[in-house]
Amino acid sequence: MLQIYLFLSCFSLNPYTDLLGSICLPLLRSPQLRQWLVRRNCSTFTVESAARSQPAVAVPNAATNRIVGRWLLGCSGLVVGAIVLGGVTRLTESGLSMVDWHLVKEMKPPQSEEEWQAEFSKYQQFPEFKILNHKMTLPEFKFIFYMEWGHRMWGRLVGLAYILPTIYFWRKGYFSRSMKGKVLGLCGFVFFQGLLGWYMVKSGLEEKPESYDVPRVSQYRLTAHLGSALLLYVASLWTGLTMLLPAQNLAETKRLIQLRRFAKGTGGLVFLTALSGAFVAGLDAGLVYNSFPKMADRWIPDDLLAFSPAINNFFENPTTVQFDHRILGISSVAAVTGLYLFSRRMRIPNRAKVAISLLAAMAYTQVALGICTLLLYVPTPLAATHQSGSVALLSIAIWVLAELRKMPK
């Protein structure tokens, strides 16, 4: 094989030299082989010129883009895990069990009975124990502590999954100039997300002497925390998909432009519906009016605008928050249905058709999950599945947009 390669390289018979060169060039550069060629009266110039005849591979290239794309999809998967775990932590009311925030120190949970008692004593000084969990035992505390600890450790895993490969790929030259800005933005967003998480938890640890309500984190901060996580996920998923899925060569017709705009609007509505779910979770709004399609015996409940000023109802009134989430959910399903029917009348690539069909199927599944969660008074497994379904629906919407995007110029 080596002799064939040397022969072909003299006549520049590509692409055969490209294939053989990838196998033989590491051998050609070894000192032992050079000595053997000298003993066989072979010119070292032939060896060196053969090695130099292979053009240098530019970086980044298609292969490195695939590696970076897969990495970003993996990171987006880890973000989904953090969102789902955060939802379960909220549903089990575990988020206020860790009353301190230390980047490294808290990575090791309590080991001895004395350490657990010390951690439990700290928790007992805060409103959630005094008002809600004053009868809690140490084993019960361990459960909620491990839930929150697992969520925080997963967050650190997400940070490492973004930052360490970024350093490696940067040094290897895998990033284009525009890509460098994107990955720096993603890494900065991960850091911001961690700070926002602690800022959210802190709101639930504050003493409020005038209030005897169940202690909970601010619904505004909870929504900001979820929203930033969804933005990080969407940005990572979109960038990864556009690097792995080649853009379809679609004729820029008027109907295609309308379909693309329809898909963007639908994706935005799905995102807004998922975000409104954070207000529902933050106010425990799923525990009021557990009936469908009416709220109790009315289409529009009497206390829909009970707060003053009226604008506060949309963010602080559990009835209004649940009503808004219902309307947004139904609107999302209607938009997805319209997108599906509109796309059936067009000639688009099969992969795009599959994506839109899956989007429609997931939308109806998500509505069914939401209704069941409401009627059954928000059981934790079903509520967690409903929250995960919102991320799945958003993911498919991003896939649809990636399939319908314009060809790069």
TrEMBL record:
InterPro entries assigned to the protein according to its UniProt record, in alphabetical order: COX15/CtaA_fam (IPR003780), HemeA_Synthase_type2 (IPR023754), Peptidase_S1_PA (IPR009003)
Membrane topology qualifier: Multi-pass membrane protein
SUPFAM superfamilies named among the record's database cross-references: Trypsin-like serine proteases
UniProt superkingdom: Eukaryota
GO terms, molecular function: heme A synthase activity; metal ion binding; oxidoreductase activity, acting on NAD(P)H, heme protein as acceptor
Location(s), subcellular: Membrane
GO cellular component, one term: mitochondrial inner membrane
Cofactor: heme b
Parts of the chain that traverse the membrane: 71-91, 153-171, 183-201, 221-245, 266-289, 325-342, 354-378, 384-402
Catalysed transformations (reactions): Fe(II)-heme o + 2 A + H2O = Fe(II)-heme a + 2 AH2
Annotated GO biological process: heme A biosynthetic process
Keywords of this entry: Heme biosynthesis, Iron, Membrane, Metal-binding, Oxidoreductase, Transmembrane, Transmembrane helix
Pathway: Porphyrin-containing compound metabolism; heme A biosynthesis; heme A from heme O: step 1/1
Family annotation (HAMAP family): HemeA_synth_type2
Designated name of the protein: Cytochrome c oxidase assembly homolog 15 (yeast)
Species annotation: Kryptolebias marmoratus
